[in-house]
Design a protein that fits this description.
Length: 123
């Protein structure tokens, strides 16, 4: 009877083991599950679209920071005809290390067909 119990206990505790046969800690498993850069980009675009109702057209800036991730995302704010007159906006998006959006703000608004004049003060 004791052998049956030991066999059942060992079957019930089938936790992941590393190459040395020891059990992996739950903490290490979570750390290994952090999203990579492409997954972070997908999550950022999806979360921003859900919050603002506007789909991201492109990501113009992307970097890892001490707090997580920082992106600048370009979205179509107002569609006009012709398309070159549509209003676009750049949003600064911040995410934690796990790819969860922690904040965003619009930093620039412009017409799609207009290039920004850098350093000249603009119009």
């Amino acid at each position: 009877m004791a052998n049956a119990r030991n066999t059942e206990d060992s079957k019930g505790s089938q936790e992941p083991r590393d190459s040395h046969g020891s059990r992996k800690s739950t903490e290490n498993s979570r750390a290994n599950k952090r999203p990579g850069p492409m997954e972070v980009l997908r999550q950022a675009r999806g979360q921003l679209a859900e919050l603002t109702g506007m789909e991201a057209e492109s990501v113009s800036s992307f970097e890892q920071t001490e707090e997580g991730w920082a992106l600048e995302v370009e979205v179509l704010e107002l569609e006009r005809v012709p398309d070159t007159m549509s209003l676009m906006a750049s949003y600064q998006v911040e995410l934690d290390p796990d790819g969860q959006l922690t904040g965003y703000r619009r930093v620039r608004r412009y017409e799609r067909g207009r290039a920004e004049a850098r350093g000249s003060g603009g119009r």
